[in-house]
Structure formats: C-alpha cells, structure tokens
Model the fold of this input.
Amino acid sequence: MSNDYPYTEQYPVNRGLPEEGRPRAEIAAELASMAEAEDAVWESGRCSGTMYCGDHEHYAFMADAYARFGHVNVLQRDMCPSATRFEGEIIAMTLDMLGAGSMGPDADPAGMVTSGGSASILHAVLAYREQAAAKGVGRPNFIKPETAHPAFDKACHLLGIELRRAPVDPETTKADLDAVESLIDDQTIAMVGSACNYGYGTIDPIGEMGAMALQRGIGLHVDACLGGFILPWGRELGYPIEAFDFRVPGVSSISADTHKYGYGFKGTSVIAFADRALRNGQYFYLTDWSGGKYFSPGIDGSRSGGLLAATWAAMVSLGRQGYIEYARRIFSTADAMKAAVASHDELRIIGDPTFCFSFTSDVFDIYHVNDEMRQKGWRFNGQQYPNAIHMAVTRPQTEPGVVDAFREDLSDAVAFAVAHKDEDPFSAAIYGGVAGGLTDEADEFIRGIMESMMDAQQGLPPLD
Done:
C-alpha cells in the first residue's frame, strides 16, 4: 500500500466490509486516539485558519445538538418541523447581520443553508444563470477579479458559463474596476466582489461595484464566505471596514460560511439573496415523475437535520455580544501579529488586510520563512505570484502566549531566510496550506496529492 495512506502502522486497513462487526468500545477507542493526535496539530494556535473556534466545550455542545437530530432527514418536514425552524432562523439571523433590514419595507430577502462555501457559490451562480435565461441570455458569462475564490471557476465549469477573470491592482490586491467593467457585455449575468478574499484578506471596492452593477443591469454577488461572520462585528468595533453587504445598493446576493467565524460545524453555509425571486431560480421541480411530485430547494436532496440543529444552537448560544467579543479578540490579535511582521524590514505585508493577512519578502523567497516556521510547529497558507504566506487569525491564536511565540519564532525564521536566501526553499503554495515539495516540482507534487485522493475515493490500491 502507498506510504501516503494514513494510520497503516497503527490500525488494520479495511479493504472490504469486515465479516463480523467490531466491538463499539474498540472502535470508539480507535476514534478517540486519532482525534486526540490530530487535535494536537492545531490546539497550540499555530495553524492558520481551518479551526475557527477551537473551543472543545462549544464543540461538545454542538455535538449534543447534532446527536438529537442527526438521524433526521430534513426533506420530511412534516415529520421534523424543527428543521424548518432551524433553517428559517439561521437565515433570518444571517440576513439581519448582513444588513437586510436596511433595504426597506418593500424588500423581500431570502436564503438557504447549504453544505459549505462552494455550495453557496454554486447556488448563487445557478440562480443568476436561471434569471438571465428567463431574459433571453443564451451565452452567459460571469466576471470575477482574479483573487476571488476558485469555487466560482468550478461553478461556471459545472454550469456551462463562461468565466471571465479581471486583473487586480497589484498594490492593493483589490479588484481593478476598469478591468471589470471592460469585460461586461449583454451576456454578463453577474460579477463577484470578495469581502474579504482568501489569499490576502483584503476587501474589494463593493460600493463602486454595486453602483456598476446597477448601471449595467447585472447581479453583484459578494463572497463573504470567509469574512461574513466577522467583518460586520469588526465594523461595530470601529475598524475601518467599508460596507460590503446589503447596505450597499446593487448587492444582490452574499455567501457567508457559518462553519467559519459563525463557529458552527463544517458542512454549513448560508447563501443570502436580496430578493426571493432570484433565490427561487435555484429550485428544482419535477411534477410528472411516477414516484410522485418532486421538489428540492437546491442541488442537495436528503440532508441531516443535525447540522441545522448544531448551527442554530451555536448562533443562538453566542448572540451578538458573543460574536462581537470574539471579533474583538481576533482583530486585536491580528493587529499584534501584523505588527510583528512589520517590525522586520525584510518582510512586506501585502495590501491593506483585515483579520487575515499575507506577507512576502523582496529580499528572499518567503518560503524560507515558512520552512523554518514549520520546524517550530506553525502551519501557514501559501500564495503564489508572488510567493507569499498568510495567517487567517482565529480564536486559537487569541489564547495567551501565541502572539509572543509568533513574534519570537518569526524573528528566528527571518534570520534563517537571510542565511539561506541563495538556496531553494522546500515549501510550495497549495490551497489550504503551504506544503512540502520544491517549488519547481509543484505541479508534479499537486498531481501526486490528487492521485492519492482519487485512489482513496476509488478504492484502496493493492498492497505493495
């Protein structure tokens, strides 16, 4: 078997269904051992993003909520009306946070809980495609600044939509408005602005993009998957964050991930629409099937009520003040970590970031810094063009001692990078992390990762 397959040294591999079931206590002990080992990777606070909450008591609270409804299928809402309550209130709370109340008494906002940020983005693009098709658009295109998430490329690929990429300002990393407008034509269905973008933590000029969308008669989706559940509270705390949500005329949909700074479990996100009619474009009906009339509000069919219950419980238990207090700690920590970066003349912060920031170097390859920080237990996310590493500050970084450790370890890493600047670094940029592998072999390295994932999904390879 491939050496990349996990836990082969500790546990037997199931190459088929076991002839007889194993004792539950034995299975539970195996799960506990793996969970404990993997939690140790992030509990030190040295991991960028990924673990947004980090509070085991909160996780246990949500797990209890999930356990009570995990077996429920939310398609059968006559049997489980709680699912309607959970989803409706999750959407209502999110719409309230994102300024839907500012649109006036005639507004008719709506939304849906999806399985994650990519799903929210896919549903938004689907809704725009259907809205445009009803107006006679036959060759739809969608415009994104280059820094917007690859989920838009994936959505357009799956839905048969032309994806047009606009360059960004290299200094600010924000959308180049002239470049965006030059790509709009009579087949454009919508464009996206990020609040904030994943790579650099900077926010596109949503106000100007909203005005452009209204003038040109197209949709404007704001991808707030990363920032949706923290930027509003940052604004309330007085941070210089311009309006990016439904308070901006022209914004027609927003994606915001409850599984990130909403502190829910992975597997939930909200896609919010300024108007119910746009939302309805993602619905599917089949009235003449022999199995009965079929309807689904989105691409998914059966869904577990557990995720709705756990997300609802998380949001209600925290409330506005809980979210604001965690945002206060996160923004303060991000400021301290950015100051540590800025204290080194060899390092340069890219753009004007928020709680998520990226930095590079004009003196050496920044991945030398990552190589040394990895030795000290840090796990960053990587960018390219130019090479950079970023830190998405979450609650684990707000724990005592983490910022001091970052400051001290970064100083050592900068000294290491200066000493090895004429050598090739070991790191390479891969979404979700900075992985090992020489940069000039990055494509081969990525292909190896993808092949390993596909092998696991296809069935285990034979023993070596």
In short: Residues 69-315 form a domain with the Aspartate Aminotransferase; domain 2 fold (CATH 3.40.640.10). Residues 233 and 325 are 9 Å apart (CA to CA). The chain has 13 helices and 15 strands.
